[in-house]
Amino acid sequence: MLDAIMRNADWSSREGYRSFLQIQHAARQPIERWIDENGAGDMGPPPQSGLIERDLATLGCRPIEARLNFELPAGADQIGLAWAIAGSSLGNKAILREVSAASAGEWPADFLSDDRMTDFWKRIRPILDSPCERARLAAAETAAMSVFDHFIAVAETFVCEQV
Hints:
By secondary structure, the chain is mainly alpha-helical. The protein is built from 6 helices and no strands. The chain has one domain (11-162): Heme oxygenase-like (Heme Oxygenase, Chain A), CATH 1.20.910. The longest helix is centred in the C-terminal third of the chain and has 29 residues, at 134-162.
């Protein structure tokens, strides 16, 4: 469902790109806050909301207020959160190509071009590729689904407010 929402985003217009960035910020900021408050250590992806804020400022607007909180369910494994967030950086590289083409390289893309998340992905990849117990796999899946559900809820809230 999240892929469908993001696939339908319009990165070819300045307004559509701005909306995409606002959704990303409103979803990521509470997750980053949760990571800060819960000491994710090596499993904590690098924060990106500041990059999004900078891109939005360059586009002449401010981020929308994050209205939804985020919290991992009890027993969830943070590797699932790390996988969900870091994995999104792979999609960001594809989006960056589309945004660059649509804007002839004129729109800011600090968030989409951030290599820290790609480096984080490479760092956690051995953990993701290693065998694990079924219980840990289920706990990681719970965490990842929590992240995806949060992004979907933020995107749906944003879309409803725009109508």
